[in-house]
Write a structure and sequence with these properties.
Largest sheet: 9 strands, mixed
Shape: globular
Structural class: alpha/beta
Helix content: 25-40%
Number of helices: 25
Strand order of the largest sheet: 5-4-3-6-7-9-8-10-11
């Protein structure tokens, strides 16, 4: 390393120098060396490191939260310091929901191994002991720990044959025997836990991912798949796993998907790639022990450190796994590349965010799928990842030139599993705009709503506005009134039809906020406010010119001949909830969803009848009875009967 060489040179030249002078020269040389070797970051690069938008970064500079130390650039030392402060939770000015991924500490990934596992309990004890000692392991120390327990697993499982497998444990460390010995002597207790081999369980992988810093897991978008989900994905592929197939996990981690491939499949049919070196080494060990084949050539040619997105192979029969869920949508690339790497007729089955089905930025991926593959199965999993609020799906595709446009009638159905119910769905609601999977009964209802004669659409006849994003809630928002402040609505205060009393207060100073709508929208004589995060539409009426935070957005309908309260009644109805859930199945109430809801036409008498019910609900009069009455009225307007 340059600094080490420089230090050695300095030591040789100043052996007789005064200690004070020697120290000063050394520091100066360090600074000069750093200046030569440190890279600098642009604002865009810094924002990518912190996983925030460039707009947020600019706002943080304006607010003094970030300061370029070599304007307009940031040194690598500054960037690392910021990341370290966020990880250790000692930078109050940058505490926000955008930086929760920098939470530090160790955590047992409890759902990674299913059922009762003695080794999982031992690993939990180990991690708890590390937490109690506030102990942080670096990558080399984690590798040494994994190597030790890998050797223990080998000796237990292979007995007299252990010497044939031990190379898989030995290759996990960096070979610095002196530092390894010193670490062992100082921390012998770390190596005394009773972690045993358990067939089909990725025990060593659990140890590794539990030791890794929680911050590092989230920065890379690495959300490790619970064993129950792995088994579900493999089970749904039974007919595709044959003695002739070649199977790839393009981001295999420590090999938990490959580990669950049926035992009668040869390991010579399996391939795994990952960018993490230690993960690949654990995969090799898992495969060798699972199939009892300590073949070094196989392990080092089939399970490799490589970016699979650059791989040009195109003859895999089956591609499986859980690609990274980074901020840049890496799973889109893995989905497209996976289809390309399949032979014609091959199958791709990946775990991806549910947002892939309907969020606008994934439209190119949906278009590619429709043109190059046939959807065979989709399984809605919900929030499966440890401490991550992001619904997931298993999406199973079959590569087919011409995609859905050339489907045969015999293949016109897709297996759908959602909330313990399963059904067959056809492809009539698949488009680049949206992937919608409905059973026959639900499809008829949605079609009837979409085909409603004289329907009104809010698109082009409404104003939408986002709530305030302060950029620093602890600075601008308080839990009680203060000088020149006013109450501000959040999503938690929004109930159907009415708003609860505000618990937050803010001084409206738009120039200080990261994002703010034009004031006229907040001060409108009447408006509708709605929860942004919500599985069903939740809209309230506001005629008090209230401010809103970004968890609470604004809709101001301007439909000639139609009252805002009539539209409010439609939006809060059971029919609208059915439409949103079935057609979008999203936890976010997006503008495009609201704009696409067909509003049933109504004469003035019908509107007045609905408005009276809405006014009673705003005033909390006979809430249950009026809710039932409203739902019956709205369903009748649509001409539908909703399932119970």
């Amino acid at each position: 390393m340059p600094l080490q060489h420089a230090g050695y040179y300095l030591k040789k030249r100043t052996v007789t120098a005064d200690a004070t002078v020697r120290t000063a020269v050394h520091h100066a040389l360090q600074k000069m060396t750093r200046r030569k070797t440190d890279r600098t970051y642009s604002l865009e690069e810094l924002c990518q490191e912190l996983s925030i938008s460039t707009a947020t970064g600019k706002n943080w500079i304006r607010l003094g939260k970030l300061t370029p130390d070599c304007p307009p650039l940031f040194s690598s030392e500054y960037v690392e310091n910021i990341k370290d402060e966020l990880a250790r939770n000692i930078n109050p000015s940058l505490k926000s929901r955008r930086n929760k991924k920098f939470v530090s500490g160790y955590d047992i990934y409890s759902s990674y191994i299913s059922g009762t596992s003695d080794s999982a309990l031992e690993i939990k004890k180990l991690i708890s002991a590390m937490q109690a000692k506030n102990m942080a392991l670096n990558e080399n120390e984690i590798a040494l720990l994994c190597s030790h327990y890998a050797a223990a697993l080998i000796r237990e499982e292979t007995g007299n044959e252990a010497h044939r497998y031990l190379f898989l444990a030995e290759e996990m460390t960096n070979g610095d025997r002196a530092s390894e010995k010193r670490f062992r002597e100082e921390n012998q207790w770390l190596f005394d836990f009773n972690i045993k081999y358990e067939e089909n369980h990725d025990v060593l992988g659990l140890l590794y991912i539990s030791c890794r810093n929680l911050r590092d897991r989230k920065i890379t978008g690495s959300y490790f798949t619970p064993e129950t989900v792995v088994k579900k994905l493999i089970y749904q592929l039974q007919e595709n796993i044959t003695p002739e197939c070649r199977i790839l996990d393009p981001c295999c981690g420590t090999g938990n998907f490959l580990l669950n491939i049926p035992h009668d499949i040869s390991p010579y049919q399996l391939y795994g790639m990952d960018l993490d070196d230690l993960s690949i080494k654990i995969t090799r060990l898992n495969i060798a022990l699972r199939w009892k084949i300590p073949d070094s050539e196989l392990m080092h040619s089939h399970f490799i450190v490589k970016n699979s997105l650059t791989d040009t192979s195109s003859d895999f029969s089956l591609i499986i796994g859980n690609p990274p869920w980074g901020t840049q949508g890496d799973y889109d690339q893995f989905m497209i590349k996976g289809i390309q790497n399949l032979k014609d007729g091959g199958t791709l089955s990946l775990i991806v965010p549910q947002s892939l089905l309907n969020v606008r930025k994934h439209s190119p991926t949906r278009k590619f799928i429709l043109e190059n593959a046939i959807i065979k199965k989709i399984i809605f999993l919900g929030d499966i990842f440890h401490k991550v609020n992001c619904p997931a799906i298993i999406l199973q595709l079959r590569k087919s030139h011409g995609g859905h446009s050339l489907r045969q009638s015999a293949e016109s159905h897709i297996y759908v599993e959602n909330q313990n119910q399963s059904f067959e769905s056809n492809s009539s609601y698949l488009s680049a705009e949206n992937f919608i999977f409905l059973n026959n009964e639900d499809k008829k209802i949605i079609e009837k709503m979409d085909d409603l004669s004289g329907k009104i659409m809010l698109r082009g006849q409404s104003c939408f506005a986002l709530g305030i994003v302060t950029g620093n809630n602890s600075r601008w928002i308080r839990g009680q009134s203060f000088q020149e402040s006013e109450p501000v609505l959040t999503g938690t205060e929004i109930l159907p039809f009415k708003c609860l009393k505000c618990k937050k207060f803010i001084r409206f100073t738009p120039d200080n906020f990261q994002q703010v709508a034009q004031e006229k929208y907040y001060r409108a004589p009447e408006k509708l406010v709605y929860r942004f995060i919500s599985k069903i539409p939740t809209f309230a009426y506001d005629n008090k010119q209230m401010l809103t935070l970004n968890s609470c957005n604004i809709l101001i309908p301007d439909v000639p001949g139609y009252s805002m309260k009539y539209i409010l009644g439609i939006l809060n109805s059971k029919a609208a909830a059915f439409y949103f859930q079935k057609k979008y199945n999203s936890i976010k109430m997006l503008r495009e969803h609201i704009e696409n809801l067909p509003i049933p036409p109504a004469d003035s008498a019908t509107q007045e009848r609905i408005i009276k019910i809405v006014n009673d609900l705003i005033s909390s009069i006979n809430t249950t009875a009026n809710t039932i009455l409203l739902n019956n009225e709205v369903s009748a307007l649509y001409g539908i009967v909703l399932p119970e």
